[in-house]
């Protein structure tokens, strides 16, 4: 695999974590950001009181701390910020989970462990580290490393509650990406590409014991989701061979659409909205009476016709899809037909590897770009209306002749938390009273 392709395969994903106040019962705050793509894993920030127009001299930085390499997103819960990164000192490599005070950025604890990385990972241009975003629930934080190290930690102290080596148990290999785990009921569900028949593995979240495993298919970057449709809960996973819906409680298949997609194309998270399911750039109509689906568009399975972006997840609002193109344009597409309504070149640079992470907030959208900039804009069928933009951080990952920032940020308690390969920044988004 050439260097450019290898670098391109390191997209992120976002996630979460959680901390308990001393001797107090655990409870997430309403405005925390405890997992990949936010509280409901859907790319929505429900907070009010955020800046509409950003200050002319930039956002107020509350704190910034040095961190190691990786593409895992920061997560925020109960007054603490969690971030996975790596320390590389050839031939030794370690992955870490950092726990920081949300107000000051002060380190509270660090959990670290040795990992075996391939030689190319020590190249300073790679920024190799954890990709999966942690997930937190009921005082526990679950972290999944680059080569299958899985830990359940006490979110307050960092103590290990249980751990597993998925490389040993399920033949999980070092991969360009590792999708973010999710919690459904009593289960911790992992998309790890294991064998035999362990592409997906569900564990008891309290003990780490296997409950089910499913699919003999191949890993991608795409993090799975759980939706309710057709009277059932459905676990949606996008592998290199298919889009598959499973019963999240049992791991049995509800429906499967064969769809060959290499892992450098299968990056975005599935998006579910009003009985429609968007996979990359392919829209499915979900059956309202039973677990089933049919392709709405496009008519062709040619990969370039059914992928919007190699780096970013689309936003579906009402009857329109808004998505980045990998070359930097922002497009609006009719959700019913797939026909393009408009295209804008005003968001980020028009180069391969561009990313636009979109988060719905009220009647407008927060867009975080590969240039490390935050934009607030209104996206409608009439066009792109930019309200304000501000620089948040300096990109550090070299790709396509410039540095990029591919990691999706977290939004919590009227702040943005964004990371590069060198630092984690907390900046205020609070509107003046």
Structure characterization notes:
With 433 residues, the chain is mostly beta strands. The chain has one domain (3-428): YVTN repeat-like/Quinoprotein amine dehydrogenase (Methylamine Dehydrogenase, Chain H, 7 Propeller). It is 3% helix and 43% strand. It contains two helices and 34 strands. It has helices at 3-8, 166-170; strands at residues 61-66, 75-77, 80-89, 92-101, 107-115, 135-137, 140-144, 149-154, 160-165, 182-184, 187-194, 198-204, 210-214, 225-229, 232-238, 242-246, 253-258, 271-273, 276-279, 282-286, 293-297, 315-317, 320-324, 330-334, 340-344, 356-361, 364-369, 373-380, 383-391, 397-399, 402-404, 410-412, 415-419, 423-428. A four-stranded antiparallel beta sheet has the order 1-34-33-32, with no helix packed on it. Strands 2-3-4-5 form a four-stranded antiparallel beta sheet, with no helix packed on it. Strands 6-7-8-9 form a four-stranded antiparallel beta sheet. The longest helix has 6 residues, at 3-8. The chain is globular, with a radius of gyration of 20 Å. 51% of the residues are buried. Residues 1-26 have low confidence and may be disordered.
């Amino acid at each position: 695999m050439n260097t450019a392709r290898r670098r391109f395969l390191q997209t992120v994903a976002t996630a979460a974590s959680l901390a308990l106040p001393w001797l107090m019962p655990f409870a997430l705050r309403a405005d925390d950001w405890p997992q990949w793509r936010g509280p409901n894993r859907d790319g929505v920030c429900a907070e009010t009181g955020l800046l509409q127009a950003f200050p002319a001299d930039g956002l107020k930085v509350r704190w910034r701390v040095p961190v190691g390499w990786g593409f895992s997103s920061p997560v925020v819960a109960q007054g603490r910020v969690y971030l996975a990164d790596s320390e590389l000192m050839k031939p030794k490599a370690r992955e870490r989970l950092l726990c920081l005070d949300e107000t000051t950025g002060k380190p509270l604890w660090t959990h670290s462990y040795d990992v075996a990385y391939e030689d190319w990972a020590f190249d300073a241009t790679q920024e190799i580290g954890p990709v999966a975003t942690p997930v937190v629930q009921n005082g526990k934080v679950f972290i999944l490393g680059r080569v299958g190290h899985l830990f359940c930690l006490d979110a307050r102290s960092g103590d290990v509650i249980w751990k597993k080596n998925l490389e040993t148990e399920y033949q999980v290999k070092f991969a360009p990406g590792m999708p973010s785990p999710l919690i459904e009921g009593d289960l911790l569900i992992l998309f790890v590409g294991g064998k035999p028949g362990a592409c997906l593995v569900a564990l008891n979240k309290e003990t780490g014991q296997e409950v089910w495993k499913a699919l003999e298919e191949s890993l991608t970057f795409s993090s799975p989701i759980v939706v309710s449709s057709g009277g059932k809960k459905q676990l949606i996973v996008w592998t290199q061979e298919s889009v598959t819906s499973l019963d999240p409680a049992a791991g049995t298949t509800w429906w499967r659409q064969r769809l060959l997609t290499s892992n450098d194309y299968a990056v975005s998270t599935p998006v579910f909205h009003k009985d429609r399911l968007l996979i990359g750039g392919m829209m499915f109509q979900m059956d309202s009476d039973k677990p089933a689906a049919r392709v709405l568009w496009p008519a062709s399975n040619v990969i370039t016709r059914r992928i919007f972006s190699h780096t970013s997840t689309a936003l579906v609002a009402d009857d329109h899809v808004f998505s980045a193109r990998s070359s930097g344009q922002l497009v609006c597409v009719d959700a019913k037909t797939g026909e393009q309504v408009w295209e804008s070149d005003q968001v980020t640079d028009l180069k391969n590897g561009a990313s636009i992470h979109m988060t719905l907030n009220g009647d407008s959208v927060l867009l975080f770009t590969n240039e490390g900039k935050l934009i607030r804009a209104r996206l409608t069928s009439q066009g792109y209306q930019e309200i304000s933009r501000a620089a948040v951080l300096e990109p550090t990952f070299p790709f396509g002749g410039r540095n990029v920032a591919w990691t999706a940020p977290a939004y919590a308690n009227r702040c943005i938390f964004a990371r590069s390969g060198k630092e984690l920044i907390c900046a205020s988004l609070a509107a003046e009273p």
